[in-house]
Amino acid sequence: MGFFKMAGTAFTNLFRKPATLMYPVRPAKRFPNSRGTLTIEFEKCILCGICQKKCPSYAIEVDKTEKTWKIDRIRCISCGSCTDWCPKKCLHLDNPYTAPVTSEFKDTTREQHTGA
């Protein structure tokens, strides 16, 4: 009896549209209040480290001596805690379409010095 039920379901699904999204090929629909990818305006950043302290998943690393700000995109859960606590409001959760992250990747932002 179970086989016929399964075969019937498989047969009817042959003539339906796919139930899954074509996500990597076609961007998923974004909703107004959905969270997105963390971005930084490094020119405004004072490297205070509050975002690193408030990050529940330990995805942010601030190094004042090397003047770098790193984020581990795999660890980031897009909770927005860092954006809420940032005193300079230089962190934002943007909602652009980005390709899925499939391997460990760390974004590093470094202060640029111009020669004088």
The CATH architecture assignment of the domain at 31-110 turns out to be 2-Layer Sandwich
**Beta fraction:** 15-25%
Q: How many H/I helices?
A: 3
Helix content: 10-25%
Gross morphology is: elongated
CATH top level assignment of the domain at 31-110:
Alpha Beta
**SSE pattern, N- to C-terminal:** HEHEEHEE
Strand line-up across the major sheet? 2-3-5
Please state the CA-atom Rg, rounded to the nearest Å: 21 Å
As residue ranges, the low-confidence spans are none
Characterize the main sheet: 3 strands, antiparallel
Distance between the termini: 82 Å
Count of β-strands? 5
Residue-averaged pLDDT: 83
Structural class: alpha+beta
CATH fold-type name of the domain at 31-110: Alpha-Beta Plaits
Key features?
116 residues, alpha+beta, Alpha-Beta Plaits, two-stranded antiparallel sheet, 5 strands
Q: How would you characterize the overall build of this protein?
A:
- By secondary structure, the chain is an alpha+beta fold.
- It has a domain at 31-110: Alpha-Beta Plaits, CATH 3.30.70.3270.
- It has helices spanning 2-13, 50-54, 81-85; strands at residues 37-40, 60-63, 68-72, 91-94, 106-110.
- A three-stranded antiparallel beta sheet has the order 2-3-5.
- The chain is elongated, with a radius of gyration of 21 Å.
